[in-house]
Specification:
The complex is a heterodimer of chains A (about 140) and B (about 350). With about 140 residues, chain A is α+β, with helices and mostly antiparallel strands. Chain A is about 25% helix and about 20% strand. In chain A, helix 2 crosses helix 3. Chain A starts with 7 loop residues before the first strand and ends in a 22-residue tail after the last helix. In chain B, strands 8, 9, 10, 11, 12, 13, 16, 17 and 18 form a nine-stranded mixed sheet that branches. Chain B has a seven-stranded mixed sheet with strand order 1-2-3-7-6-5-4, sandwiched between helices. In chain B, strands 14-15 form a two-stranded antiparallel sheet. Chain B has two domains: about 150 residues, no CATH class; about 190 residues, Rossmann fold. In chain B, strand 4 and strand 5 form a beta hairpin. Chain B is globular, with a radius of gyration of 20 Å. Classes of the chains: A alpha+beta (about 140), B alpha+beta (about 350).
C-alpha cells in the first residue's frame, strides 16, 4: 500500500496578510481581528509555507527535527492562519536558516473588538438590490 | 434574482454618475494629491454641500491631464440609483468590504449603516461613490471625502493614503502614527499653532522614496474643544469660529490655506497621551508595526496588504520614536522640532 501523502499547508489568503521585519514576521488575520508576532524560527517556517508545504518537508529544508515544526504548523492551523494546500509543491530554499529552531507564535487579540463591531449577518435588499439601511449602532 | 456582470459594473455606475452630473446640480473640482491630477465630479446639492469643503482643490498645471476621475452622487439628490450590484447578499463582509472586491484592480466597499457604496477600477483610474441619501451620510465622511476611492486609485501612482498625521519645518518632517485618541491630532495642531508646517492631522498621503515624502489629502483638520482650549486658541480659535462640529463633538477646522504641500519624512513618531510632555524616545520599528498595524488597517477597507507593506517600509527605513504628550502642549512642538533638526542633519 502507498504511503499516505503528507498534508501540505499554505497561508490563508486573502484573510491573512503579513510582513517580515528584521527577520521576524507580523501576521494579521483580517477576519478574526487577531494579529501575531513570529520569532525568527517561526518566520522561516512561514516563509516556506508560501509555496504550500508539509511540516516534514519544511523541517527537511531547514535541517531541523520535525516535531517542533509539526507543532508550530498545527498551531497555525488552529488559529486559522493556514489552509490545506493538497500535495507538497514547495521548492523554496532558505539559504541560512536561523540557528534557533524553537518557533514561537505570539497571539494578540486586543484589537479584536474593533473588528467584530460590525458583523454582517442577515442582509435584506431593497427593490434596487441594495441592502436595506440599518440604524447605526450607538 | 439576476446578478449583474462584475466586469463592467464600475463603468456602468460611472455612466449613471455622469448622467447625474449632466442633469445637475453638480460641481467639478480639480485636485493634485501628491502631484497626481485628479478630476472630481459631485452631483446632488446636499452631497456637494457636505463633501466639497473637505476637498483640497488645486488647479491643474498646463500640461496636466486627469490621471484619475472620481464621481459621487446620491439618490435623494439626483433621483438616480446605482445599478443592481454584481455580488450577492452573502458577499457583504465585516469592515464594509465585499468578497471578491478587496484587491486591485477592482475594489468596493459598502456601508450598510449609511448606505454608501464605493467602487474603483484602478486600471481605468476610475472611482465612484454612491449614497442613498447624502443627508444621512456617515458623520466622518465630510472630513475625509471620497477617501476610499481616492486611496484605491492613487495606489497605482505610488501614492498611499494612510491613517497618520504629518508635521514639519516646511522642508523636513515627521509622520505621527497611532490609533484614535493616541494624541496625533493634538500633536499636529500644537505644532501648527507654534508656527510649524502641517500636512495633515488624520490622513496623510505618502509617496515612497528616499526619503519618503508626506502630502496633504484633505482640507479639514479636527480638534476637540478641550484641545483648542489647551492650545490657547489664538490662530486656531479664529478658524474654529463657525466651524462645523463632527460626530464626536470635534470642530472641523478649514486648513486649505495653511497646509504644507510636501515634507521629506525624517522619522516616525508614535505619540502617547501622558500627564506631561516628554522627549522622543527611540523605539523598535518592528514593535511599532505590531502595535499599530491593525488599528491603521481598520481605518481603511480594501487592499490591506498594500497598507501593511507601506507601514512596514516606513517603519523599516525611518527611525521610530515614541513621544509622551501632555497638557503642557507648548513643549510638543519644541520636542518635534528638535527631533526633525537632528534627523535632517544626520541625513
Amino acid at each position: 500500500m502507498d504511503e499516505p501523502v503528507p498534508l501540505a499547508f499554505r497561508p490563508r489568503r486573502p484573510d491573512v496578510i503579513d510582513e517580515a521585519f528584521d527577520g521576524e514576521a507580523v501576521l494579521v488575520h483580517m477576519s478574526t481581528g487577531c494579529y501575531y508576532s513570529l520569532n525568527a524560527a517561526g518566520t522561516a517556517i512561514w516563509a516556506l509555507l508560501q509555496d504550500g508545504r508539509s511540516p516534514g518537508s519544511i523541517a527537511a529544508s531547514l535541517g531541523w527535527d520535525p516535531p517542533p515544526v509539526e507543532d508550530f504548523v498545527e498551531r497555525l492551523r488552529a488559529e486559522d492562519l493556514v489552509t490545506e494546500a493538497g500535495a507538497d509543491a514547495g521548492t523554496t530554499v532558505i539559504d541560512a536558516p536561523p540557528a534557533v529552531s524553537e518557533p514561537v507564535l505570539q497571539r494578540f487579540s486586543d484589537m479584536q473588538d474593533l473588528l467584530m463591531l460590525d458583523p454582517i449577518h442577515d442582509i435584506d435588499l431593497d427593490g434596487d438590490g441594495w441592502p436595506v439601511t440599518r440604524a447605526p449602532a450607538g | 434574482m439576476t446578478v449583474a456582470r462584475s466586469e463592467d459594473f464600475v463603468a456602468r455606475l460611472a455612466d449613471v454618475a455622469r448622467a447625474a452630473v449632466a442633469d445637475g446640480p453638480a460641481r467639478t473640482l480639480t485636485l493634485r494629491p501628491a502631484g497626481v491630477p485628479v478630476r472630481v465630479h459631485l452631483a446632488g446639492a446636499e452631497l456637494i454641500d457636505r463633501l466639497a469643503p473637505g476637498m483640497l482643490e488645486e488647479s491643474f498645471e498646463s500640461d496636466d491631464r486627469p490621471a484619475i476621475e472620481l464621481l459621487a452622487f446620491d439618490r435623494a439628490g439626483t433621483g438616480r440609483s446605482a445599478p443592481r450590484p454584481p455580488w450577492t447578499p452573502g458577499d457583504y463582509l465585516q469592515r464594509e468590504e465585499i468578497a471578491g472586491w478587496t484587491r486591485p484592480p477592482r475594489l468596493a466597499s459598502y456601508s450598510t449603516d449609511y448606505a454608501t457604496l464605493s467602487v474603483a477600477d484602478t486600471d481605468a483610474g476610475l472611482g465612484v461613490q454612491w449614497l442613498r441619501d447624502a443627508s444621512a451620510m456617515a458623520p466622518w465622511e465630510g472630513g475625509a471625502p471620497l477617501r476610499s476611492i481616492l486611496r484605491w486609485t492613487l495606489e497605482r501612482h505610488g501614492v498611499h493614503l494612510i491613517h497618520a498625521a504629518a508635521v514639519g519645518n516646511g522642508t523636513d518632517g515627521v509622520l505621527l502614527l497611532g490609533s484614535g485618541g493616541a494624541g496625533k491630532s493634538t500633536t499636529a495642531l500644537a505644532c501648527l499653532q507654534a508656527g510649524m508646517a502641517l500636512v495633515a492631522d488624520d490622513y496623510t498621503l505618502i509617496r515612497a522614496g528616499s526619503p519618503p515624502t508626506a502630502h496633504p489629502a484633505f482640507a479639514i483638520a479636527k480638534a476637540a474643544p478641550a484641545s483648542l482650549e489647551l492650545l490657547g486658541g489664538r490662530g486656531l480659535g479664529a478658524r474654529a469660529a463657525g466651524a462645523r462640529v463632527d460626530w464626536r463633538g470635534k470642530l472641523r477646522l478649514p486648513i486649505a490655506d495653511v497646509v504644507c504641500e510636501a515634507l521629506a519624512l525624517r522619522a516616525v513618531v508614535l505619540p502617547r497621551v501622558a500627564e506631561r510632555t516628554g522627549v522622543p524616545v527611540s523605539f523598535s520599528g518592528r514593535e511599532a508595526l505590531r502595535t499599530i498595524a491593525v488599528s491603521t488597517l481598520l481605518q481603511l477597507p480594501g487592499d490591506s496588504a498594500a497598507t501593511l507593506a507601506v507601514l512596514r517600509e516606513l517603519l523599516a527605513t525611518l527611525p521610530v520614536y515614541t513621544l509622551e504628550v501632555g497638557p503642557d502642549v507648548a513643549a510638543i512642538p519644541e520636542a518635534i522640532s528638535a527631533l526633525i533638526e537632528a534627523q535632517a542633519q544626520a541625513a
